[in-house]
Write a structure and sequence with these properties.
By secondary structure, the protein is α/β, with parallel strands linked by helices. It is about 25% helix and about 25% strand. It is built from eleven helices and 17 strands. The strands form four sheets. Strands 5-4-1-6-8-7-9 form a seven-stranded mixed beta sheet. The chain is globular.
């Protein structure tokens, strides 16, 4: 069985970006990180990450193995050839630099098809189109690519037709392929990407000791692994004490300061005396986030999932109108028989369903 650690990664970023006003697309910002930084997170479990560039591109590449194209002006086939040539493993996952909506689950799905029995493993989307730059190639294709370059045949799809390819058909999957596979080729594409960015939020509800916090911490890890920027909001019905803050800051608040800010090398926190406001006011602090998880809010109209554990309760107590599904160690919940129940320990399924319904 081929494991993720048996596969290298090749990020194809050596194009001139002529349709993008000749900028380095890999350095475009999205959700407070560059496309390159996001890809580094998404492929962190793989072996080496090679970065295919042209000789004119000059920016820090720490954490990557830089590869400059040997052949000029022939398109991505040059980067593909150099990456497979230099790879110290038989399998290399290729990815264009301008697909900011990739997810870790999608990447792992592709990798799960890799075996010793084919030359390449490539995506075919729900409309039947092949994506030859997103998939896994093997060392076996190297002489075929070399011959194609020698014959001035630089079209990747022509190359694909000469290989024994295992096509990974997305037709019957739940993946939103139009979004995940979307390339950012023009300033209009990039503007649309940024403009249409929205922050999704949902509540994890349940009665006291039902396991809300435990589930949230597991979901945070899962969202972060998939490259999402996620925040949390918890409502405290009492005046909480900042016992873990710097004692001087606490003194400032207790001495009458209306607001105070504490910061360090990696973080900051702003505290201000203020009457409680609607949740929408606090959501504004999370501009640029992909998801916000609210802890509690079981009676609110906000979209939510509810945690129910059998040793604590066996019925739902959240607002039924805004419930998306239940998370429980019970097989059925009497007063919510119309809702799906997911196993409380199956974080992968909970995460995937949240992505689908929120």
């Amino acid at each position: 069985m081929i494991k993720i650690k048996d596969i290298n990664v090749l990020i194809l970023a050596g194009g001139k970006g002529s349709r993008m006003n000749y900028c380095n697309k890999i350095l475009l910002q999205y959700n407070h990180q560059t496309f390159l930084e996001r890809l580094k997170i998404l492929f962190s479990d793989f072996n080496n990450i090679y970065l295919s560039l042209n000789s004119e591109q000059n920016f820090p590449t720490d954490g990557f193995i830089r590869l400059d194209d040997d052949f000029k002006e022939i398109g991505p086939i040059s980067g593909l050839y150099k990456g497979i040539l230099e790879s110290d493993l038989d399998y290399i996952f290729t990815v264009p630099c301008d697909v900011p909506n990739l997810t870790k689950d999608f990447i792992e799905y592709i990798a799960s098809f890799v075996s010793p029995y084919h030359d390449a493993f490539l995506i075919r989307d729900k409309d039947g189109f092949i994506h030859p730059l997103l998939g896994v190639y093997t060392k076996k294709v190297l002489p075929i690519i070399k011959t194609a370059i020698k014959n001035n045949d630089f079209k990747i799809l022509n190359l694909v037709n000469k290989l024994d390819v295992k096509f990974i058909d997305l037709k019957y999957t739940i993946f939103d392929d139009k979004n995940i596979l979307k390339n950012i080729n023009t300033p209009e594409d990039y503007s649309s990407l940024v403009k249409n960015k929205k922050t999704n939020f949902f509540a994890v509800s349940g009665i006291k000791n039902s396991g809300k916090t435990t589930l949230i911490t597991k979901l945070l890890k899962k969202f972060t692994e998939n490259g999402f920027k996620v925040g949390t909001i918890k409502h405290d019905g009492h005046d909480f004490q900042m016992d873990n803050l710097d004692s001087d800051t606490d003194k400032h608040i207790k001495s009458g300061a209306s607001g105070t800010l504490i910061f360090s090398k990696n973080k900051y926190m702003f505290l201000e005396n203020s009457p409680e406001k609607d949740l929408e006011f606090y959501l504004k602090f999370f501009k640029g986030y992909d998801f916000i998880i609210l802890e509690g809010f079981k009676h609110s109209d906000y979209p939510k999932i509810e945690v129910i554990r059998k040793e604590i309760s066996n019925i739902s107590q959240s607002n039924e109108n805004s419930l998306k599904f239940l998370v429980s160690d019970l097989k059925s919940i009497k007063n919510r028989e119309n809702l799906d129940i997911l196993d409380i320990d199956d974080i992968d399924s909970i995460f995937k369903k949240l992505i689908d319904v929120i």
